[in-house]
Specification:
Elements (H helix, E strand, L loop, with lengths): L2 E4 L2 E4 L2 E8 L4 E6 L2 E7 L8 E3 L3 E2 L2 E6 L12 E4 L20 E4 L6 E4 L2 E4 L4 E4 L6 E4 L6 E2 L10 E5 L6 E2 L12 E3 L6 E2 L12 E4 L5 E2 L12 E4 L5 E2 L12 E5 L13 E5 L1 E10 L3 E2 L3 E2 L4 E2 L7 E11 L4 E8 L3 E2 L3 E2 L4 E2 L7 E9 H6 E9 L3 E2 L3 E2 L4 E4 L5 E10 L12 E3 L6 E8 L3 E2 L3 E2 L3 E3 L7 E9 L4 E8 L3 E2 L3 E2 L4 E2 L7 E9 H6 E9 L3 E2 L3 E2 L3 E5 L5 E10 L12 E3 L1
Length: 580
């Protein structure tokens, strides 16, 4: 091979290469065979930060940008690639461009495109480069099958990355030194994580490795200084050296309990098993049909629509453990049905029969590791207490429909999600209860309700005029007095005597209730009222005042509940009584 140099001109095998610069853009370039290659850039005077590479330089079509042409240009904020560039762009092209926020491409380019400032192949299957100025969260489009190495290198303003399940390999150095990255979603399609893929992601505290991953190359998570745990959902993958070197001092590998190939230690790291479980359920609702599945304590059913539940499905999502869930329902005109399990239907279909109660229990390993809690919203009662592990929840003998349900898993022996008193009422079995009824304007005496149910009216602007309260199946007594229009506080009444007035059309404005004897030693009595112009006030207890004074506001409804002595209040307690 022979070559010779002429000023500004180089000849290789009779092909002439000329070098030149463009004063307007600050670009330097070479021309070979009529095609221009950008070789460098020096910002011209007054440069704004936005570099637009022209389609021609020195009369030659720009077809290529060399690997080092734009590296370490810290004054670049955006760049536009012309339609004429067609040769491969190098993965190092924008290395060190610390202010670059957008890589744009002329729409007519047949090989590359830009979306929101990120550079892709024209067909969208390759993500080539994300500018380091990109901020916040980023979701890789589902069209992408290949993310280039270094594509997100030093994107230090990114906090969250979601990778689609079209990607199978996370290439070398893809997320190198994304120092503010706190969340990464790796899909269950990725089989390999390459060398230094997440190295020096110093804010990453936890990473989930899906079951699809079979290989993690050396240094993949090196110097992720905040990384305390890596959760492996599959059998042990092949591991390169120093995959987690320089991570947090308490870094631990966690693996699903039923997976194989792990030891403790594993490749020098502490390795401990884990498992997960969640419960999902759906209900068939009168006039609605099947609702979608909800999970882990969310409500299924309806609120304030007086619609019955007619059937239910319940299922578990278990990882790392085995087991199942069984349940049965108490159905109108049928009674308790047989137990069903694992997403089978309990209740009836096309029979318009209400569910009245339910029992739920876990089986297998799930039952040794978790308690299942559940509570129902019953007609005329409202939300009842939490039942667990096969206990009955709802009512029997009252023909009350279930209207909603919540189901939740709790680690074995853990605290209940809420109050567990009064989760089931059986009309034919004695139960500790407080019963009460009110005399309502234009209505008269309503029937007795119990244990937190509402007595009175809602949205009708009707005053309470009298009340009677009694205990059931409890030793001891109950006393109460009311603050009455034009009279003030009345004398204490007790054990189902009336407090208030009869035939005088005088409103109740406030109330005090207290237990006596053994009942006072066993329970706290809580009560809250719905008052004119204020709505539901907070809960009072044990003789405190509930309602208003000095405003002339009527009481419209009341709820009363017994709570085991010293137990948690049924709700807020800060504003039970308002004094004018």
């Amino acid at each position: 091979m022979s070559f010779f140099i002429v000023i500004g001109v180089i000849a290789f095998n009779k092909e002439t290469v000329s070098a030149a610069s463009d004063a307007t853009t600050g670009l330097t370039y070479t021309v070979t065979g009529g095609a221009a290659t950008v070789t460098g850039f020096t910002a011209p005077s007054g440069f704004s930060g936005a570099l637009v590479i022209p389609a021609t330089l020195g009369g030659a079509t720009v077809t290529k940008i060399s690997s080092f042409a734009l590296q370490n240009k810290t004054n670049l904020t955006s760049i536009t690639i012309p339609s004429s560039v067609w040769t491969d762009l190098d993965e190092y092209l924008f290395d060190g461009c610390t202010a670059l926020a957008a890589i744009n491409v002329d729409n007519a380019n047949a090989f590359y495109k830009s979306t929101d400032g990120v550079l892709y192949s024209k067909d969208g299957t390759q993500l080539i480069c994300c500018p380091v100025g990109k901020t916040g969260t980023f979701t890789v489009p589902s069209s992408v099958t290949d993310i280039w190495g270094y594509a997100f290198e030093k994107c230090q303003a990114l906090t969250s990355i979601t990778i689609p399940n079209s990607v199978t390999i996370i290439s070398y150095d893809t997320f190198y030194s994304c120092t503010n990255l706190t969340s990464v979603t790796i899909p269950n399609s990725v089989t390999r994580i390459d060398t230094e893929a997440f190295s020096e992601c110093s804010s990453l505290s936890s990473i989930t490795i899906p079951a699809s991953v079979t290989s993690i190359e050396e240094y993949a998570f090196e110097y992720c200084e905040s990384l305390t745990s890596a959760y492996f959902y599959g059998n042990a993958p092949a591991m390169g050296s120093n995959v987690f070197r320089g991570c947090a001092s308490d870094f631990t590998v966690r693996y699903l309990k039923d997976k194989t190939g792990y030891t403790n230690p594993w490749y020098g790291y502490t390795a401990l098993p884990f498992y997960t479980a969640s419960v999902s359920y759906r209900t068939h609702v009168q006039d609605v049909g099947w609702q979608g599945y909800v999970k882990n304590g969310e409500m299924s059913g309806t609120s304030a629509q007086s619609k019955r539940l007619e059937a239910i499905n319940i299922k578990l999502d278990l990882q790392g453990i085995t087991g199942g869930i069984e349940y049965r329902t108490h159905v109108q005109d049928i009674g308790w049905q047989d137990w069903v399990a694992d997403d089978a239907l309990s209740g009836t279909s096309a029979q318009s029969k209400r569910l009245e109660a339910i029992e739920i229990r876990l089986t297998g390993e799930a039952a040794t590791l978790y308690d299942v809690y559940y509570r129902v919203h019953a007609q005329n009662v409202g939300w009842m207490g939490w039942a667990k592990n096969g206990e009955s929840s709802g009512t029997a003998g009252y023909s009350y429909r279930l209207e909603a349900i919540e189901v939740k898993l709790v680690a074995k022996g853990g605290a209940a999600p809420g109050d567990t008193t009064w989760s089931f009422i059986d009309k034919y079995e004695p139960v500790d209860a407080v019963l009460y009824k009110t005399h309502v304007q234009d209505v008269g005496w309503q029937g007795y309700v119990a244990n937190g149910a509402t007595s009175g009216t809602s949205g009708e602007s009707k005053r309470l005029e009298g009340i009677q309260i009694k205990l059931n199946n409890i030793a001891g007594g109950i006393e109460y007095r009311t603050h009455v229009q034009d009279y003030g506080w009345m004398d204490w009444a007790s054990n189902d005597a009336m407090s208030g007035t009869s035939g005088q059309s005088k409103r109740l404005e406030a109330i005090q209730i207290r237990l006596t004897g053994v009942a006072a030693d066993t329970y706290d009595i809580y009560y809250c009222v719905h008052a004119q112009n204020t709505g539901w006030l907070d809960w009072a207890k044990n003789g405190q005042s509930a309602g208003t004074a000095g405003f002339g506001y009527r009481l419209e409804a009341i709820q009363i509940v017994l709570v085991a002595k010293g137990g948690p209040a049924p709700g807020m307690t800060e504003r039970a009584f308002v004094q004018g």
